[in-house]
Automatic annotation (TrEMBL):
Pfam families documented for this protein: SnoaL_4
Organism, as annotated: Pseudonocardia adelaidensis
Lineage, opening ranks: Bacteria, Bacillati, Actinomycetota, Actinomycetes, Pseudonocardiales
Domain SnoaL-like: from-to ranges: 2-129
CDD domains (alphabetical): NTF2_like
Cited InterPro entries: NTF2-like_dom_sf (IPR032710), SnoaL-like (IPR037401), Steroid_delta5-4_isomerase (IPR011944)
Descriptive protein name: SnoaL-like domain-containing protein
Domain of life: Bacteria
Length: 136
């Protein structure tokens, strides 16, 4: 698989892992020293959540508060920089909620990511910023 394909796969693994509540799979998409930040609309910066453990606590807590089935749809992936060891990527998120027999769009967002190829050859997030357009 090409570097671009492997990088795109990390973004998709993250989304599917969240939607399937597969926290082991999601954790594998982050480096141990990863940092995650978030901003909702034009609100204050949320985070940084520093390290895989802090990021995963945020994800587990977020999932625990939800009663619906989420679907994270990642599109418009643009590799901004890639040198074989690190990459910068931007993409869009459409966040869909399925509950009580209905699907609705909760929010849209932009992801700005930095990834690193680890010693085991796998690409993982080192930084992820989520810029949500609406509260969800």
């Amino acid at each position: 698989m090409s570097d671009r394909g492997e990088i795109e796969n990390v973004l998709n693994r993250y989304s599917i892992a969240y939607d399937d509540n597969d926290m082991a799979e999601m954790a594998d998409t982050f480096t141990d020293d990863a940092v995650l930040t978030m901003r909702i609309a034009d609100g204050d910066l949320i985070g940084p959540f520093e390290g895989k453990e802090a990021i995963m606590k945020l994800m587990v807590d977020s999932l625990a508060s939800q009663t619906d089935q989420r679907r994270h749809v990642t599109t418009n992936l643009a590799v901004r920089r890639e040198d074989g060891r690190s990459a910068a990527v931007s993409s869009y998120l459409t966040l869909i909620s399925v509950e009580n027999g209905a699907a609705r769009v909760l929010s849209t967002a932009r992801y700005d990511d930095e990834l690193r190829r680890e010693d085991d050859g796998a690409w993982r997030f080192t930084k992820r910023h989520i810029q949500l357009d609406l509260p969800y």
